[in-house]
Design a protein that fits this description.
The protein is mainly alpha-helical. Helix content is about 65%, strand content about 0%. Helix 3 (about 50-70) packs across helix 4 and helix 5 (about 110-135) packs across helix 6. The longest helix is centred in the C-terminal third of the chain and has 26 residues, at about 140-165. It is globular.
Length: about 170
């Protein structure tokens, strides 16, 4: 198998292990739910097709739902964030410049663009997740506050993950 495939599988296993063993037990103040596993979807290679991207995102979310005893919240939010990534990732990461990147990471793009990419997509993920968890907009300010808090914490964890587990020359 291709060396890149093994890196992607290893990243998936590591992020899922961190999520299931550590982060699923962290729920700070009722507003912060770090979900680092979403980074797997955000770091899939840019040449991944639309249908495979959506299927991988749905499968990842469904696996987390099964392991967390949820009702499909993760599967829907992951699929929605994959769709947003398909539509807008190029604009966020490269600012419409003709740049080809293999895998979005803090080393493959300008750090501020990558952090903006993380903030936008994590924010969208959490907004969808908390909206369907509460099942409506009746607590809009609570949803918004939880979205902002969780997005900031997950983005910080994602950047920390990048610096700890990725090498500077990594392009996958």
């Amino acid at each position: 198998m291709n060396k890149n495939i093994w890196k992607i599988i290893g990243r998936f296993a590591l992020l899922m292990a961190i999520q299931m063993l550590v982060l699923n037990h962290v729920y700070l103040g009722g507003y912060v739910m770090p979900m680092l596993y979403v980074l797997f979807i955000l770091m899939l290679p840019t040449n991944t097709g639309r249908i495979p991207m959506l299927l991988i995102a749905f499968g990842t979310g469904l696996l987390v739902d099964i392991m967390s005893n949820m009702l499909g919240f993760h599967a829907l939010a992951c699929t929605a964030v994959a769709m947003l990534r398909i539509l807008y990732a190029d604009r966020i990461l490269t600012r419409n410049e003709p740049v080809v990147i293999g895998t979005p990471s803090i080393y493959s793009v300008t750090p501020q663009y990558f952090i903006t990419y993380l903030l936008v997509l994590f924010g969208f993920f959490y907004f969808v997740f908390f909206t369907i968890e509460i099942f409506g907009f009746r607590s809009f300010w609570s949803i918004l506050f939880a979205t902002i808090c969780s997005t900031v914490v997950s983005t910080l964890l994602a950047v920390l993950y990048q610096y700890i587990f990725l090498k500077k020359e990594t392009t996958v």
